[in-house]
């Protein structure tokens, strides 16, 4: 809206001033027009700000929950390495079971599960024969792998090495299923997962904080432009209004003799 070039507003302000009428209605009409001009833009930035604020609140709540779950304990590098090694061993066992196919692979998995069950029974804790049972399970796993690989025409030495490796894997995996070890290992892996989730949520939160700042800056800038334009409109209207008012005063004070000045030699001569 270019008020300086709007002759209708200027003329109306002068007319109101000349006749001594109130300019309030004109000012109100012009300012409402300015509000309508900036309304869509202000609504756009306001909605963006409110949306990002809602997302920010949600991610802050997520981070707070993850912080409470993580607690004040530090992540143990030793337990973290043990957890990774445990997963690697389980993956190796799974690969070996798939390699042997049924029924050898099924038996191998069954023996591993059996050893884990033995380790989980509280009544079996601190019993020597429990470890003997685990050793027997590992030895059975060793023979299953050897016979399975020899049956598939693998080299005997290679089959024995794979059998030994499998027996050790089964024994270590079963030992890991003791209540203390498994709780600490899985607790560490869970804590690692929580840390990763928290890190990701913090990066996402930073993104939405930047977006919120952008919307807020745009909103404040647009509102400032609107207010400045409204102030300029009021000042312009009042200036023209006062001009019209002064014109009426000057008209009343005009000397009628000046309106009928004689002309001599093409020049106006004052009496």
Task: Chart the SSEs and their pairings.
Layout: H1 7-19, H2 24-70, H3 77-100, H4 104-120, H5 128-151, H6 156-176, H7 179-252, E1 263-264, E2 267-268
Antiparallel strand pairs: 1-2
Helix pairs in contact: 1-7, 2-7, 3-4, 3-6, 3-7, 4-5, 4-6, 5-6
**Termini distance?**
49 Å
Low-pLDDT residue spans: 254-271
Structural class: mainly alpha
Overall structural domain count = 2
Helical amount: over 70%
Mean pLDDT: 75
The strand order across the widest sheet is 1-2
DSSP helical segment count: 7
Number of strands: 2
- Please state roughly what percent of the residues sit in beta strands, choosing from under 5%, 5-15%, 15-25%, 25-35%, 35-45% or over 45%: under 5%
* Major sheet description: 2 strands, antiparallel
- Shape summary: rod-shaped
Order of SSEs, N→C?
HHHHHHHEE
Alpha-carbon Rg, integer: 44 Å
Short account of what is shown:
The protein has helices spanning 7-19, 24-70, 77-100, 104-120, 128-151, 156-176, 179-252, and strands at 263-264, 267-268. With 271 residues, it is mainly α. It has two domains: 3-68 and 210-264; 73-201, no CATH class.
């Amino acid at each position: 809206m270019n008020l300086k070039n709007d002759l209708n507003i200027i003329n109306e302000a002068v007319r109101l001033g000349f006749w001594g009428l109130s300019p309030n209605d004109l000012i109100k009409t012009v300012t409402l027009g300015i509000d309508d001009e900036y309304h869509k833009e202000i609504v756009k930035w306001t909605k963006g700000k409110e949306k990002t604020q809602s997302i920010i609140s949600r991610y802050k709540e997520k981070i707070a929950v993850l912080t409470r779950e993580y607690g004040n304990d530090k992540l143990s590098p030793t337990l973290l390495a043990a957890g990774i090694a445990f997963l690697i061993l389980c993956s190796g066992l799974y690969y070996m079971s798939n390699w042997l196919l049924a029924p050898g692979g099924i038996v191998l998995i069954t023996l591993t599960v059996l050893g884990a069950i033995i380790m989980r029974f509280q009544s079996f804790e601190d019993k020597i024969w429990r470890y003997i049972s685990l050793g027997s399970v590992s030895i059975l796993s060793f023979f299953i792998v050897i016979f399975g690989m020899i049956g598939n025409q693998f080299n005997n030495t290679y089959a024995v090495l794979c059998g030994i490796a499998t027996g050790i894997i089964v024994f270590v995996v079963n030992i890991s299923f003791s209540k203390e070890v498994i709780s600490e290992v899985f607790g560490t892996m869970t804590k690692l997962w929580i840390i990763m989730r928290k890190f990701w949520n913090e990066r996402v939160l930073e993104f939405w904080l930047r977006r919120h700042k952008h919307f807020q800056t745009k909103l404040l800038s647009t509102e400032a432009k609107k207010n400045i334009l409204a102030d300029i409109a009021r000042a312009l209207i009042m200036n023209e209004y006062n001009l019209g008012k002064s014109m009426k005063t000057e008209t009343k004070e005009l000397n009628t003799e000046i309106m009928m000045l004689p002309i001599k030699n093409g020049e106006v001569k004052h009496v």
